[in-house]
Amino acid sequence: MALLLKESHLRKLLTMRELIPLMARTLAAFSTGGAVQPLRATVPVDRHGAFLGVMPAYLAPSAPEPSGARRGAGTPADAADAEEALGLKAVAVYPENATRNLPTHLATILLLDPATGALRAVLDGRLITEMRTAAVSAAATDRLARRDARVLAILGAGVQGRSHVEALREVRPPSEVRVWSRTQAGAERFAAEMRERFSLPVAVASSAERAVRGAGVICTVTGSTTPVVEGAWLASGAHLNCVGAARPDWRELVTDVVRRARLFVDSRAGAVTEAGDVVGPIREGAITERHIVAEIGEVFAGRHPGRETEDEITLFKSLGMAVEDVATARFAYARAQAKGIGEEIRLE
């Protein structure tokens, strides 16, 4: 017998305050040998301009506590953190779904018993993907952004833009939020929602440049396949979270941004294979693989200091990883069992 956890269940089980330190611990484990994760297998669905990704991972028990990480209020230091976790996510990325009023990312996560391989849970992966991605960006921002960074620029007014505002409030509460989107109407809806939901001053920027200039934290969460940020726009000491462009031929940043910044990634192997914002500059000869300063998990584990000066520009390139999904699923499953949430299912 397994447990079915729908999005409605997961909304009762997961909070951003708890996910941020959980993701820091998970990525510290990944970068210190506590996880096994192959590169995602990707199946193009060219007829529909889409692709299917399959992302398995195994987390060993007793992941290390990352140096300097802060546990969120109520985050349990219990079996949900210490036990093994095995599972996989299947994610379908359909950019054109935005025109159909459907999510562009649809996902399902299978959580297995590491000792027997038996199915423990089937979980909605859309919300987990949304929340864990923003939580990782927030954890990276906490270690890489300047402490006085209070102007937040969000490029992209979709699900990840909303989730990133929610997450970044936990580590760098903004005094000003600027949003830019390719459509004015989308940016206006985003701004109105964020003002009402979080009581934040949110302004719609007329261009990506106006959003970025002077911002201390910049999040690119677009579906763009061509660059939307230029290096000349960046203020001294700015930090960027680059979340879109998850394919080797997609870009959110011009090469000069990457060349100027101190580059941190979630996975070295993934970044030089899948991330267009890294692959592109390497192919052009503007940088080499050595331009990657560290995996962000090395920072969380205390093996790298992260930001070293006030004026350096830092860039975290996030591809999203299976270990993040499996760790979040393990956490949700343990909490669901404790709270009696979810629906039992039988496959036999």
Question: Structural class from helices and strands?
Answer: alpha/beta
Mean pLDDT: 93
| Rg value | 19 Å
Provide a count of the helices: 12
Per the principal axes of the C-alpha atoms, what is the gross shape? Answer: globular
Q: Please write the string of helix (H) and strand (E) elements.
A: EHHEEEHEEEHEHEHEHEEHEHHEHEHE
Oligomer: single chain
Main sheet specs: 8 strands, mixed
Features:
8-stranded parallel sheet; alpha/beta; 348 residues; 35% helix
Explain what this protein looks like in three dimensions.
The protein is α/β, with parallel strands linked by helices and 348 residues long. It has helices at residues 7-13, 16-31, 79-82, 126-144, 159-168, 184-198, 208-212, 255-260, 268-274, 276-284, 296-300, 322-339, and strands at residues 2-5, 35-36, 41-45, 50-59, 85-93, 105-112, 119-124, 151-155, 176-180, 202-204, 217-220, 239-242, 262-265, 292-295, 314-317, 343-345. Strands 1, 2, 3, 4, 5, 6, 7 and 16 form an eight-stranded mixed beta sheet that branches. α9 (268-274) packs across α10 (276-284). The protein starts with a strand and ends with a strand.
